[in-house]
Amino acid sequence: MTTRIERALRMTALVGEDERWHHRPLYAEIVHRVHAAGLAGASVFRGVEGFGASSMVHTSRLLSVGDDMPMAVVVVDREERIRSFLPQLDDLLDRCLVTLDACEVLRKVKDDGVAR
């Protein structure tokens, strides 16, 4: 097996843990939309400290306010797939910050050329 490097696009949606969309956590709504669109995958990461537009610092440290922690939903797929998905987030953009970054993905490929 050999390693192949492929270009990709990383989409990161930054949201507050307490942010809701129709009674569902906003990060979960994004993950479900990504899944329904058939993208390669999504992961949600909980931050330990951060602040956003409100300028209020949220932290998980003891004796501090530990609510509404920062959350990051990360999706990596081919650029054209991510870009075609973006309109599905239009109604959420007033509740989150979405960034796009070019990246590279390492894949193991069998000698027959099939990615694993």
Description:
The chain is an alpha+beta fold. Helices cover 16% and strands 41% of the residues. The chain contains 2 helices and 8 strands, in the order E-E-E-H-E-E-E-E-H-E. The protein has helices at residues 26-36, 79-85, and strands at residues 2-16, 20-21, 24-25, 43-46, 49-50, 58-59, 70-77, 97-109. It is elongated, with a radius of gyration of 17 Å. The N and C termini lie close together (9 Å). The mean pLDDT is 89.
Secondary structure elements and their pairing?
Layout: E1 2-16, E2 20-21, E3 24-25, H1 26-36, E4 43-46, E5 49-50, E6 58-59, E7 70-77, H2 79-85, E8 97-109
Short recap of the structure:
16% of the residues lie in helices and 41% in strands. It is an alpha+beta fold and 116 residues long.
Structure keywords:
single chain, 116 residues, alpha+beta, four-stranded antiparallel beta sheet, 41% strand
Give start-end ranges of low-pLDDT stretches. none
Distance between the termini: 9 Å
Main sheet strand line-up = 4-7-1-8
Count the E strands: 8
Give the H and E element order.
Answer: EEEHEEEEHE
Q: Which secondary-structure class do the elements indicate?
A: alpha+beta
Report the major sheet. 4 strands, antiparallel
